[in-house]
Specification:
This protein is α/β, with parallel strands linked by helices and 194 residues long. α6 links the parallel β8 and β9. The radius of gyration is 20 Å and the shape is elongated.
């Protein structure tokens, strides 16, 4: 890693072992006398241990569950090549900070983006709506394998596997017509053998 300074801006270049160390380096550099700004755009995370995106995703779900069991219902987790994105609602800023702290320390996390609306009322609404939708879809569970419902800002996200495109559209329309649901993100996969 190389650090250069130009007009009071410290610029770090090269490779570092983890997202967490990159974040710590940036925070420490900001505190140095005479530093007006810090750039880590050219500092790339190259972890020693590289886990699959699915394994990383499972670890993140475990972290979320240990903080608040309802987070899995209101935050969507995407992991692509070690870049983690969380989108949805969280009850407090403290929960978001805790997520950033714990997820950032995981090996293989190259970058972490948390795009969440923070508010206990919206979070509670999304949790309740998620539970309501799950209850309403109990009759459809025989047609859907691995059904998972999450809600972000009153938009329902439906995941699972169905036998036909028609069944996927029927479930989407059913959920869209439920009270309080403002939109549906249909992520149902089609597999006729299911």
């Amino acid at each position: 890693m190389i650090t250069s300074v130009y007009n009071g801006v410290a610029m770090h270049h090269g490779y570092i072992l983890s997202y967490w160390k990159k974040r710590q380096l940036k925070n420490m550099t900001k505190k140095m006398p005479g530093v007006k700004g810090v750039s880590t755009a050219s500092l790339h995370v190259k972890p020693v241990v590289v886990k699959s995106d699915e394994n990383l995703r499972l670890e993140i779900f475990n972290i979320m569950e240990s903080i608040d069991q309802d987070l899995k219902k209101t935050l969507e987790v995407k992991v692509v090549n070690g870049i983690v994105s969380l989108n949805g609602t969280a009850p407090t800023k403290g929960v978001v900070d805790l997520l950033e702290n714990r997820i950032g320390k995981l090996q293989s996390v190259k970058q972490l983006r948390i795009n969440s609306y923070v508010g206990i009322e919206q979070h509670r609404i999304d949790v309740n709506l998620s539970e309501y939708i799950e209850t309403q879809l109990r009759n459809h569970q025989k047609y859907v394998k691995d059904l998972k419902i999450s809600v972000r800002g009153r938009i329902a996200v439906i995941k699972g596997v169905v036998r036909s495109k028609l069944k996927a559209l029927q479930i989407e329309n059913y959920v869209l017509n439920l009270p309080e649901v403002s939109g549906v993100e249909n992520k149902l996969k089609i597999n006729p053998i299911t």
